[in-house]
Amino acid sequence: MRIESTRPPSALRIGLLLLAVAAATRQASAQETPSARLTYERGPGAERCPSETALREAVSARLGYDPFRSGAPTAIAVSLRRAQEGLSALVVLRGPTGVLGRRAISSRASDCTELASALELAVCIAIDPLVLTRARPAPPPPPPAPAPAPAVKTVVIRTPPAVAKPAPERKARRSNLWPREWLLSASVAGSLDSAPAPALGPTVQVEARWPLLSLALEGRADAPATGPALVGQLQTSLLMVTLVPCYRLGIFGACALVSAGVQEATSQGLPVTNHVVSPYAAVGARALAEIPLGRWLALEIAVDVRAPTQQTTYTVNGKVDGQTDWVTPPVSGSLALGLAFRLP
């Protein structure tokens, strides 16, 4: 750090000497501590320097009293600026007759620590030139320690630790068997050999799912499909409910099918329309893939193979040359495409 003056060195020394003599004379005559008015300004780039309050407290601590009075005849003006290299400060001392002296202080450091220490000392000398001849006032004594609290006897009552009762096995089993999630799905299935002609029908399913297993209840209604008969035409439709237990691994699954329902048959193209309803039962297997489309939605593709437990023979106008109109095939197949929604 370097300290510079805006006046020649000899003039600065003479000014400070006169200032010290005048301050000492005033102190001896008035028999009171020196005081001054303070104006403080921090320019751009000097924001890290101490505030006016901090400077006042530091000077008061060094002098041992608060020297700043609003009506004091002596005024001290302090201004801080950012210089080309580091920071600079200017201290101007004014009295009733005008400027008594000024001091310029500069520092190459940018954190203002070095400059703040030199500025504090310069303000103290400007107020009381004899400050360096006296010992620095001792810090105030620490406050007395509080009286010790009266001894309190602590009585610890030990209670035996509470032993948690094991949950009944029945409740634990129920919680493990409860499905992890529920799904609702809707699809469209196209079937072969379940009617005299290819058939389409909607399918709705409610499914309970565990980590590797699932169980679903499915309802399917095939639209009427019409095929040729020996005489006229034969139209059939299928309505059934299927229980679908599955084993799942990733997006794929393998399922068993147990179906039950009714099949309606109606003759067409004859003077008299015949209508018959017969029971339908079948078992089969399903291969499926479930492709996630988001958190709550998935695309399902299922391929089914069913075998009716009993084949049904349909004749529209009786047997002709020992032939019948249509017999349910031993195996039928279907392809379904739909969407599955995970219930919250």
Question: What would you note in describing this structure?
Answer:
The chain is of the alpha+beta class. 17% of the residues lie in helices and 44% in strands. The protein has 4 helices and 16 strands. The chain has helices at 9-30, 52-63, 113-127, 169-177; strands spanning 2-4, 37-42, 75-82, 87-95, 98-107, 181-192, 199-209, 213-221, 225-228, 233-249, 252-268, 275-292, 297-308, 313-314, 326-327, 332-342. The protein has an 8-stranded antiparallel beta barrel. It has a 5-stranded mixed β-sheet with strand order 1-5-4-3-2. Strands 14-15 form a two-stranded antiparallel ribbon. β3 and β4 form a beta hairpin. α2 (52-63) packs across α3. The longest helix has 22 residues, at 9-30. The two termini are 73 Å apart. Residues 1-16 and 25-31 have low confidence and may be disordered.
List the SSEs and their pairings.
Blueprint: E1 2-4, H1 9-30, E2 37-42, H2 52-63, E3 75-82, E4 87-95, E5 98-107, H3 113-127, H4 169-177, E6 181-192, E7 199-209, E8 213-221, E9 225-228, E10 233-249, E11 252-268, E12 275-292, E13 297-308, E14 313-314, E15 326-327, E16 332-342
Parallel strand pairs: 2-3
Antiparallel strand pairs: 1-5, 3-4, 4-5, 6-7, 6-16, 7-8, 8-10, 9-10, 10-11, 11-12, 12-13, 13-16, 14-15
Helix pairs in contact: 2-3
Concise summary:
The two termini are about 75 Å apart. An eight-stranded antiparallel barrel has the order 6-7-8-10-11-12-13-16. It has a five-stranded mixed beta sheet with strand order 1-5-4-3-2.
